[in-house]
Amino acid sequence: MCFVCYRIVKKDERPFALAFQSFSVNLLDVIAFVIPGFIPAPVFIGALIDSTCILWDEPCGKRGACLLYDIASFRHLTYGVGFGVLVLVLACKVTLWYLIRDIKFDDGDVGQIMPMDVTVDKESAKDNDAASSGKTSETFETVDIC
């Protein structure tokens, strides 16, 4: 997402856009993952498994461990939850694609080398060349890198 933000925002507004995007993503992470994270996965999965129990052990009048599970409903529940999560992820991806399908990217300055003037001091370059290779070179000029 960072690259999308970088490509569709004007050059002078990019720092603010990246900061806002970072803040938004961190806020969504807290809302989507940290807060629901207080209900641990083992408790959730345990409740799903316990929902398929047919016969409970009741020592001392309290509900204990499950003695017999309904295998068919256990199988359907296990694969159903996995399939449901996959469908939810697919729906999110299709929705994201639908929302960003009309975005036009400005490829004007992506992958371009910025022009830069490189100047070399003749005396210091001559000394460096003579010291490193034993030869002196007389041709030095300003190079425009594009």
Low-pLDDT stretches are none
Report the sheet with the most strands, covering strand number, pairing sense and barrel closure: 2 strands, antiparallel
Mean of residue pLDDT values: 76
- N to C succession of SSEs: HHHEEHEHE
Query: What spatial order of strands do you see in the largest sheet?
Result: 1-2
Structural class: mainly alpha
Shape summary? elongated
Q: Radius of gyration from the CA trace? A: 32 Å
* Count of the domains: 3
- Tally of helical segments: 5
Counting DSSP E segments of at least 2 residues, the number of strands comes to 4
Which range does the strand content fall in? 5-15%
| Range of helix content | 40-55%
How far apart lie the N and C ends? Answer: 29 Å
InterPro entries: OATP (IPR004156)
Biased composition (Polar residues): 130-140
Transmembrane segments: 30-56, 77-100
GO molecular function: sodium-independent organic anion transmembrane transporter activity
Can you describe this structure in just a few lines?
By secondary structure, the chain is mostly helical.
List its salient traits.
3 domains, two-stranded antiparallel sheet, two-stranded antiparallel ribbon, 146 residues
Task: Give your account of this protein's structure.
- The protein has 146 residues and is mostly helical.
- The protein has three domains: 1-38, no CATH class; 39-111; 113-146, no CATH class.
- It is 55% helix and 10% strand.
- The protein has five helices and four strands, in the order αααββαβαβ.
- It has helices at residues 2-8, 14-34, 41-50, 71-100, 122-133, and strands at 53-56, 66-69, 116-118, 143-145.
- The protein has a two-stranded antiparallel ribbon with strand order 1-2. It has a two-stranded antiparallel ribbon with strand order 3-4.
- The protein is elongated, with a radius of gyration of 32 Å.
- The two termini are 29 Å apart.
- The model has no long low-confidence stretch (mean pLDDT 76).
